[in-house]
Amino acid sequence: MIIISRWYMAKALLFLSLSLLALNCWSAPASDALTYWADSDERNNANIDHGEWQTVLSHNLVDQHPSGINRFDYSGISAADKQLLTNYLDHMQQLDPRAFNHSEQKAYWINLYNALTVNLIVTHYPVTSITKLGDSLFRFGPWDDKLVRINEQALSLNDIEHRILRPLFHDNRIHYAVNCASLGCPNLAKQAYTAEHLDRQLEQAAQDYVNHPRGVDVKNDVLWVSSIYTWYREDFGGNDKALIRHLVKYANAPLAERLARFQGKVKDHYDWALNQP
After folding, report:
1. Could you tell me if 76 and 134 lie in one domain?
2. Overall domain count for the chain
3. pLDDT band at 171 (very low <50, low <70, confident <90, very high)
4. CA–CA separation, 189 vs 57, rounded Å?
5. Are 15 and 58 contained in the same domain?
6. Is the dihedral of CA 154, 156, 158, 160 positive or negative?
7. CB 70 within 8 A of CB 156
8. Closest Cα to residue 250, out of 195, 200, 201, 209?
9. Mean pLDDT of 159-178
């Protein structure tokens, strides 16, 4: 009995250690730039067509949910929309984003990230959380799995977000645009991102998240913020004061007033449940 108990204890401790390691690796991914993708052609004013992705969003995204969180109808998506999603991802992989201007590239990578994430859930549905997916033995999500090949370069979701979008575009509003199929995440936008409207769309995404309790909530002497602000602390100024200045920029009154006066503790939280209706 003692041997069995020790075996189970050792197994449990090993699983806990590996789970914590996996979570830590996910929450602090490398942000080293993939300089291969740094080139652009600012003379090129051509637009990338995101129409198929827009159709998928229009047919399946519930953006008037009582919770204030956009939901994707993974269970109800039609065969036709699944095919559109596949076609869109195929088309994106046939492009060389370096041939487009910087703004067009930015929209391209954001839309690609979101479409890949939706496709992952649709392919493996039913699933309760994206964290249940992934190819590794001790998995915590699919973020390191190579999902696309562009210009013969195999890329993962982490590559797109942390080795392309963050280091090459230097815009912390990207965190409000990429969606991880979870309730704690900023909304999956109803409109596909486009170079023409990108700045307005990113501003709106930031406002929507900061002014929802899953993003920011002041309760007594505790400022509850999304774990996104902890995981990517450096992107929001590196300390609590800088973070609060960022939040005030997007907060509506009276939240902005409460943030400006806040002197308490900052704590974080996140909900990994699937963002389905």
Report:
1. yes
2. 2
3. very high
4. 8
5. no
6. positive
7. no
8. 209
9. 98
69 burial type by CB count under 10 A (0-12 exposed, 13-18 middle, 19+ buried): buried
Q: At residue 139, does pLDDT exceed 90?
A: no
What percent of the chain clears pLDDT 90, i.e. is strictly above it? Answer: 86
User: In the predicted model, what is the mean pLDDT of residues 31-55?
Assistant: 96
Residue 101 belongs to some domain of the structure = yes
> Where does a domain end: 167, 182, 198?
198
Q: Where are the alpha helices (DSSP H) in the chain?
A: 2-27, 51-60, 79-93, 102-124, 157-158, 166-169, 198-210, 228-231, 240-250, 255-261
User: How many whole angstroms separate alpha carbon 224 and alpha carbon 239?
Assistant: 15
The two tokens of residue 38 are 């740094």
Whole-structure pTM value = 0.90
Distance CA 132, CA 146 (A): 17
